[in-house]
Amino acid sequence: MSRNIHLERLDALLGARRPPRLPGEEGISGSDIVRVIVLSLLFLVLATTLLVLDIPLGERVTLEAGEVSPLDIRAPRSLRYESEVLTRQAREKAAQQVEEVYDPPRPQVARQQITRLQEIIRFIDTVRANPYADLAQKTREIQAITDLNLTEEHARLLALLPQERWELVAAETMATLRLAMGREIRESDLPIVRANVPLLVDQTRLTEQEAAVVTRIVQALLRPNTFPNPQKTERLRQEARESVPPVIVEYEAGEIIVRSGEVVTEAQVEALEKFGLRQRRITLRQVIGYGLFIALFVLMFLLYTYRRYMPFWQHAREPLLFYVLLLGGLALAKAMVPGHSLLSYVYPLGALTVTIGILQQRELSLLATLFTAVVLGHLAGNALALTLYLSVGAVVMLLISEQAERLATYIWAGLGMVAAQSTLIFGFQTLNGTFTPNEYLLITLATVVNGVLSVSLALTNFYLAGLVTDKVTIIQLLDLSRPTHPLMQELITKAPGTYHHSLVVSNLAERAAAAVGADTFLTRVGAYYHDVGKVKRPHYFTENVQGGINPHNQLDPHTSAQIIIGHVADGLDLARKYRLPRRIRDFIAEHHGTTLVAFFYRKALEHATDPDAVRERDFRYPGPKPRSKETAILMLADAVEAIARARQPKDRQEIEAIVRQVIWERLEDGQLDDAPLTLRDLSRIRQALVEMLAGIYHTRVAYPEAPASSPESASTPSASSEPTVPSSPRPEKVP
């Protein structure tokens, strides 16, 4: 009755969420923090050094344009290349030869100046006719006309002229201004046009002083009436640039590039770079710039991992692996990107992204992708298109290959990356028209090479990481999943019953792992090896007992319990011998947690003269308790399969009762305390296990037996026949 009440309480709580408890949840130690900070600072220094140095290093000069060469520098090999410097200079020279284009003269400018002259004439008429002003006052008022800037002599002359002479001067001024403004006047030509005004004045009708006044007034009112058209000018100059073909430079081996004592030109600097003979000087500005940039991203990494990926801080291999992969990516970028426009599109960023995403965490790999893509774009000359091209392809490859269980998935991931990158490049070409069809074809071929290289390098990284860091990788899991693996062959040969049990458990655990988003492939392979320690004493375990002889009948309970418990330690010894990854060893060590071998413990209590002398800890597995979703699922699946095989449930209700019992007992015993499972996860696991067991123990149709006289019935066992189970008490298979 009490058990049923507990199960009902469990069902009521299955919708609630229990905060997951992860390994190392107790916090980060001071040594962990120091280790991560030291590694991060070391990465900052090394990454900054990589970015400011030219790769590969060697015997190179540090000449800049305008400096004097201290020695003769010869071409180490023959080389023919398109000179960007000389091409740019030739195109700029052709563009400068195109004269500036001017719009036609604007009539409104002439009308505006003539109107202004009319206003000035009317003002002078008013001043001249003022009966209350003397000559000095009239002179001052005429001289105050700002547009004209007349001298005192000219102003006095205009005030003293008789009316008929003034009218003649005014008419001649208007005629001369109309004539001058009727011609094209550019801003640059204005001084020349003003100098030619005296030639336009009718000297025959005016005195020398009157002609000088007309000239002064017209010169003051002249304005440019035609202006440059920068759009037309630039279009013609661009056409001139495009008409100049690329300049091809050829050097023969041994030919002098720069002579001793010669002032180095920009074109010679380019030639030195093409030959790889020039080392750029490291400047403080470069060091500070790259250092700040990398420090910002390192800070982002640390902040993210501190909140979302604690293994980065708790295990030295996590930051070490991450930073080594990033440094390798930066070194490859420095070798492939600067100065190689087409080779930049081959850079296998997808390999870095997938490697970090599979070996560590997807979100962490996206941060690494962003960091590396920005660096690549900068190295390529702040090329936004290249940054998007590489980062989009890498993300697509990661999304397709995540949780991949077959090598074919990585091939599809590479094809997906090629398709995404080709589409992106075609989109840029359509928008900007920057690529010719031949260039687009070359870049498309580069994307194919990029896909092949990314997939190959990612798989290589998985293999090397598995050897060096004890990380479980897809390559290792594929190898371990084969029945031909030496340890699996040993299990099949020496403990066939255990092998069959492991297969059934793997199916159950894989289905449950899929239900809660755990790693299904890792769970399946871990289930294959979880009981491998039984190969050392196979006949002491029920699934391998044949002929009805139970060897535990001749042993005391304590010895039997130690044999049962010992299969964990034996399994770990074999796992180390065959170099199984740590994550697979976790399945062996954790699939029983610290559970009690209850059958032999109760038996020991029954036979003991002093029950208090029987220590419970002698009958418990050494642990640790499951610390991941996958190992916790295996614990439940292993226990459920063992009990179901013993009880042979007849219907779904019995199966449900078994699964509920196992989950509740593991919860009550605290075996799931360290596993990142919520009660909602346990509900989904329960449903998955029930569905799988219902398929295994479904009700069979009872067929009529064959006649006794049939020879087949006498020689062939029934398809549903089971091995003989010993009648003596069966040693409990503690989950």
Can you put this structure into words, describing what you see?
The structure is a single chain. The chain is mainly α. It folds into 3 domains: 27-37 and 48-55 and 282-471, Arp2/3 complex 21 kDa subunit ARPC3; 107-221, no CATH class; 495-699, Hypothetical protein af1432 (Orthogonal Bundle). It is built from 31 helices and 4 strands. A two-stranded antiparallel sheet has the order 1-4. A two-stranded antiparallel sheet has the order 2-3. Helix 7 (163-181) packs across helix 10 (208-221), helix 18 packs antiparallel against helix 19 and helix 28 (629-647) crosses helix 29 (652-668).
Shape: elongated
The overall pLDDT, averaged over residues, is: 83
Poorly predicted tracts of residues: 1-26, 706-735
Beta-strand fraction estimate: under 5%
What top-tier CATH class of the largest domain fits best? Answer: Mainly Alpha
Annotated CATH architecture of the largest domain: Orthogonal Bundle
Give the domain tally: 3
Would you count the extended β strands for me? 4
Question: Into which percent range does the helicity of residues fall?
Answer: 55-70%
CATH topology of the largest domain: Arp2/3 complex 21 kDa subunit ARPC3
Largest sheet: 2 strands, antiparallel
Number of helices: 31
Neighbour order of strands in the largest sheet:
1-4
Distance between the first and last residues' Cα: 24 Å
What Rg, in angstroms, do the CA atoms define? 46 Å
Structural class: mainly alpha
